[in-house]
Here is the input.
Amino acid sequence: MEEPTAVASEAPEQGGPHLRELSLDPAPERPLDDPAYFGDLRAGCPISEVGLGGGKTSWLATKFDDVKAILSDTRFSANPRTPGFPVRGLPGSDHPLTADSMIRQDPPVHTTLRRCVVKYFTPRAVEAYRPQVEEIVDTHLDALAAHAGPADLVSQFALAIPTTVITRMLGIPIEDAPRFFDLTERQTTLSLPQEEMYRTVEEFRALGLEYAALKEANPADDLLSHIIREQYEAGGITRDQLAALITILIIGGHDTTAGMIGLSVYTLLRRPDQLALLVSGERSWDVAIEELLRVHSVARMGPRRAATEDITIGDHTFRKGEGVVASIWSANHDESKYSRTTWADFEIPVERPQHLAFSFGQHQCVGQNLARMELRVTLPRIFARFPGMKLVDPEVTHLSYRDDRAFFSLKELNVTL
Here is the structure.
């Protein structure tokens, strides 16, 4: 993967000529596992300096406890404008429309923006959508059953489920899905040139404003109409913040969950012994889903933070103005926390595992309850409907995956039903 570029205010050049460059490329022979050097760092230097390219550097935190502590500490800023923030490798993160979005803000702005949506994603609020999600899943399972020949579960099923769910929740046309698929693909592609990334951010903003205008003219009982009426029209957020919020809900509402559906089905097909435990009831689907979330950790780019004052985490002190990549991917494979750290060792534990797949602290994923519910509905249903489902290529000599995007996923998953 080419080293992406971004204009930044990272920490100044430091380190020697042999400084390790931060690489998030999975190894071709083990694409579902974290890079081998993460394990080396966890064992020998859990908070280490890495190169970001272009002479820029950052700290990399790899151990579970350290990453959790960093994400819990509000003295670390999530705003790319903060001095030392490691934006290189996050193309477009310094664009004003991106930098002002909820996931890039610190309190009190972040608190205000998160409050706009959090009540719609509580466990109770999400549970109210379950009948609709069940109907959506069953409809797409019917379509799969009617399909002759092998099926690609990524394009024909995994992507369709969360996309249909989030469009219904927001009250936006499902017919627009190809449009925001393209925008999502571009905005989450790490190697996209900066000029094109800026153009994509502007296009996504225009789409968000288009949907806002649609709901202002025709309000309904949907999430977007409620946000406009209760937050924007009440003066709580600006027009640009509204557009950025819509963008986040669209991207977060379909892309990561689609990736997890595909990866989860693939994993269970490759581990029929574990699938049998679920089918027999010997293991819990709820626990299995948490373990799948931990093992795959589809958000592999960070999160990233900058120290706003001197902060000591474990044995390391971050100086004010230094950046850190707090690797969820690495933390979720920490040998001191988990007995099984590779995909090939996947087993469903008896107890629900702790993990950081949805991040932690004030920026923990606002849509995590929805994602869990969608996985909980989707996975048991597809295996119950197609108990004889098999991979077209049982040996899977070549796994097709997306490694140039902010969120890891399979490109395709061909099965016979």
Observations:
- The domain at 36-416 is CATH 1.10.630.10 (Cytochrome p450).
- The chain has 16 helices and twelve strands.
